[in-house]
Design a protein that fits this description.
- Among the domains are: about 25 residues; about 190 residues, no CATH class.
- Helices cover about 40% and strands about 20% of the residues.
- Strands 1, 2, 3, 4, 5, 6, 7, 8 and 9 form a 9-stranded mixed beta sheet that branches.
- Strand 4 and strand 5 form a beta hairpin.
- The longest helix is centred in the first third of the chain and has 37 residues.
- The N and C termini lie far apart (about 140 Å).
- About 5% of the residues have low confidence.
């Protein structure tokens, strides 16, 4: 029986889809065929071809999309810069005055702002103190009716320590060397120098005393030099009165030989220094029995009284 011939497997069907021709395949074929070229020469030829046929430029729509993307990035950067600038302003404002943690509690009344003012007490320093106070007064920029506390500070004795509040006794003795000794004996350490935002920024001084009778007598004695001692910080230039304006409120007969007169202001008995038109240039009064107020106008007196009727920030001893 003749042997059965071995059946050979059918050859693999030829794919109808031609293989993908790639740049890499072309290079390999050229190298294999040995046409006298190298990879370096091929790369050089390709670079020359790209130089002769530059890439197709962007379409107008693509350019608009790119510009839009860059504009959004620029807007984001600008927003970040604005936010950084705002934070810088806030930081500088806090360091220019006092930081929140460093603000001391206000005595007597609540205040709307606290600004430290560096002073140096002692003989020959009166002019510097008044200059610093005047600068601080002119720098107040607040809505009408608000109050700024000028927190008077001095350099501490220990180097490197934080500034401390200037004592009222040494302060008064520096700016008013003729102040009556009996008044100085009754003045206590707590005090407040403030600016009331009204007209040209009105200054005021609140003092705490331990004896009503002694303090009142001392203030009467101080009237002889009070107005001069507090200038120029306590200076006032009221607006001229209009024609036909009502005459100033009546005052009681002058009993003391000083420039001050008795005057009822805001239902309070005060001692006032007036100009020829009857405007108050300086006044002082005792609020309660242990607080002396010195200011330049009746409107500041009204505001201080209003704030005294609210709860103080810190308790006042003896009240």
């Amino acid at each position: 029986m003749p042997p059965i011939p071995e059946k050979k497997p059918d050859p693999a069907p030829k794919s109808e889809v031609s293989p993908l021709q790639t740049y890499r395949g072309d290079i390999e074929q050229v190298v294999q065929e040995g046409k006298g070229v190298s990879v370096v020469s091929i790369a050089a030829a390709e670079a020359e071809r790209r130089g002769k046929h530059p890439l197709i430029s962007k379409t107008p729509e693509e350019i608009k999309a790119i510009l839009k993307s860059w504009s959004m990035v620029a807007a984001g950067v600008a927003l970040v810069l604005v936010a950084a600038g705002a934070l810088t302003v806030v930081f500088l404002r806090q360091t220019a005055t006092l930081s929140i943690a460093e603000k001391p509690p206000a005595p007597f009344i609540f205040v709307d702002e606290v600004v430290p003012v560096m002073v140096k007490t002692g003989q020959g320093e009166r002019g510097n103190i008044m200059s610093n106070l005047q600068t601080a007064r002119r720098s107040v920029k607040m809505p009408i009716g608000l109050i700024e506390w000028l927190y008077l500070t001095k350099q501490p004795e220990q180097e490197g320590a934080a500034p401390v509040q200037a004592g009222i006794t040494e302060l008064l003795q520096t700016i008013a060397p003729q102040i009556p000794p009996e008044l100085m004996r009754t003045v206590e350490p707590i005090y407040l120098v403030g600016i009331h935002s009204f007209e040209e920024n009105q200054p005021f001084l609140l003092l705490q005393v331990d004896s009503y009778e002694t303090a009142y007598a001392g203030m009467l004695a101080w009237e002889r030099t009070l107005q001069k001692d507090l200038l120029p910080f306590f200076g006032r230039n009221p607006s001229p009165k209009m024609q036909g304006a009502a005459p100033p409120a009546s005052t009681t007969p002058q009993l003391l030989q000083t420039a001050f007169v008795d005057k009822v202001v805001e239902n309070r008995d005060t001692r006032a220094y007036l100009n020829d038109a009857g405007d108050v240039l300086l006044l002082w009064t005792v609020l309660g029995r242990n607080i002396i107020l010195i200011t330049t106008n009746e409107y500041t007196l009204r505001e201080v009284i209003s704030r005294l009727n609210t709860a103080p920030v810190i308790p006042i001893p003896g009240k």
